[in-house]
């Protein structure tokens, strides 16, 4: 069981969530690779069972550099690969805050990703964080729950 967690993070909050998901999966015996999204070779995702992408929400969307990476990928890039996206954002109605993970999820589907769970948001108290209490535990629970899909 090989999981790739690809993320971006400006103030470390998204990275903290990525780490919590990864550590929880590792405790369940999965092999997890964590990489900045810009380091990923999307043409070479062989042996990856699950691709998790995490990003902060910027301007009601994913950060522009992530968008340009994902938009450039050919249609069948993720054929046969399970996917899940998460974001960090402000704790408010999603219509106001927007959500990077909802946007990422749409792009992943377009390039063949097999979405296993709805996109998930984790909440920051301010632009630079910190995360609200309980968010790390929620990320750990998410990680543990992913085992059933592998
Ligand atoms: C340029 C910029 C734009 C942002 N726009 C939004 C936004 O539209 N909606 C939102 O919920 N949060 C917004 N935020 C707050 C980010 O979601 C927050 O900085 C992020 O969750 C922190 O994650 P990180 O530490 O991994 O970068 C914005 C932050 C920055 C820096």
Helix content: 25-40%
How many helix segments? 5
Number of strands: 6
CATH architectural name:
3-Layer(aba) Sandwich
Number of domains: 1
Instruction: Write down the Rg.
Output: 14 Å
**What characterizes the major β-sheet?**
6 strands, parallel
Helix and strand pattern: EHEEHEHHEEH
Please identify which CATH superfamily we are dealing with: Flavodoxin domain
Question: Which small-molecule ligands are present, each listed once?
Answer: flavin mononucleotide
Protein model, in words:
The chain is built from five helices and six strands, in the order βαββαβααββα. The chain has 150 residues and is an alpha/beta fold. It has a single domain, classed as Flavodoxin domain (Rossmann fold), CATH 3.40.50.360. Strands 1, 2, 3, 4, 5 and 6 form a six-stranded parallel beta sheet that branches. Helix 1 (13-27) links the parallel strand 1 and strand 2. Helix 1 (13-27) crosses helix 5 (135-146). The mean pLDDT is 96. Bound molecules: flavin mononucleotide. Flavin mononucleotide (FMN) binds next to helix 1 and strand 4.
Task: Give a concise summary.
By secondary structure, the chain is α/β, with parallel strands linked by helices.
Features:
150 residues, alpha/beta, Rossmann fold, 6-stranded parallel β-sheet, 5 helices, binds flavin mononucleotide
């Amino acid at each position: 069981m090989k999981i790739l967690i690809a993320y971006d993070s400006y103030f470390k909050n998204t990275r903290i969530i990525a780490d919590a998901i990864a550590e929880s999966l590792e405790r369940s015996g999965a092999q997890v690779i964590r990489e900045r999204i810009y380091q990923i070779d999307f043409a070479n995702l062989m042996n990856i069972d699950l691709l998790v992408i995490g990003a902060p929400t910027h301007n009601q969307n994913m950060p522009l550099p992530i968008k340009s990476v994902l938009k450039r990928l050919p249609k069948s890039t993720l054929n046969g690969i399970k996917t899940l996206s998460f974001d960090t954002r402000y704790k408010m109605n999603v219509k106001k805050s927007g959500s990077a993970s909802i946007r990422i999820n749409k792009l992943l589907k377009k390039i063949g990703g097999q979405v296993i769970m709805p996109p998930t948001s984790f909440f920051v108290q301010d632009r630079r964080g910190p995360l609200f209490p309980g968010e790390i535990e929620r990320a750990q629970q998410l990680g543990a729950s992913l085992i059933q899909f592998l």
